[in-house]
Amino acid sequence: MLKDRSGRGYDRLGKEAGVSGSSLHRYCSGLGVPTDYRVVHAFAKVCGASAEELRELHRLWALADTDRDVPAVTAKENPEPDVPEPAVPAQANPGPDDITPLEITPEATGEPRRARLPEKLSSRAAILAAVVTVLLVAGFVWLPSEGPAGGSAAVGDKLLYSPACATVSMGEHDECVREVQRLLVRAKGKLAVDSDFGPETLRRVTAFQVLAGVTARGVVDEDTKKALYAQKASMTTWSPAKVAKRIREVFVEDPDTAVAIARCASFLDPLYVLPNTNGSRNWGVFQISDARLRDLDGTPLRAFDPDWNIKAAHRLWSVRHDFHDWPSCQAALKGTPKS
């Protein structure tokens, strides 16, 4: 859609976005998924995508990237075989002693051997099961529940401590995710509470972990649950307008391009996190990579400080007085008016 709307060919768009025309053709025709989102972002910017379209494009790319190596198996492609019920030999007026357990063989179903109980025994088993259930329920009245460390029972209204929420991670869609999102919003994180653990939630979880001093794994583990419930960190940060203003103050040599580069990289979001396919991540306003952070004697926590991030980006710019550290965004800005 973006390509058609631009009215330009693959070669021209690819040149402006910093990718070959043939690769761009594969991506647009659905034959391949770029391993680096920045390629997608640069292409979209060249095509004049709006901020809302860019966010939707990132969401779709993240879903495609997650499913890249997952084989697609549908019910039509791999239907479960219909296993007929083995016939029971007919008997005339069977007595109690004639009723024998019916064995379904593993060869027929692929499951372990199990016997079908006679009707009388089934009734007795049902009564026994009901008695056991009552006893168990009664027992739970006085049996002590394990706390958050054991993770076997929720404590009060802390849903994440329940067994169902053992580890909450990318791709889940349930009430555990909704609870995580609710707690992130309580911590002043900006995200939708929709029960869907997608790229937006992944970014906010990772950012919260960094701010709270928890190992930034991108999944909600026990340490992260404790930090969320304890409100260990606030995700309050600068507005995009304040970020843009500070960029112009620091990048006095080329303020318009600097703001455009930062907007391309992070939407001017100081807590933006972008995971890379090699396991590294980019951080903050100017999406400074792990490698560059080491060069700058920085950390992800420092990178979330917008003032430090902007000044660090200016140090990188000062090496050659250009934006060579942001090749995709720089390529996307070529031939487009500055804003």
From TrEMBL:
Alphabetized UniProt keyword annotations: Membrane, Transmembrane, Transmembrane helix
Stretches assigned to the Peptidoglycan binding-like domain: 177-228
Segments crossing the lipid bilayer: 121-143
One Pfam family matching this protein: HTH_31
Keyword Membrane belongs to the record: yes
Disordered as annotated region, ranges: 74-114
Domain of life where this protein originates: Bacteria
Protein name: Helix-turn-helix domain-containing protein
UniProt organism field: Streptomyces coacervatus
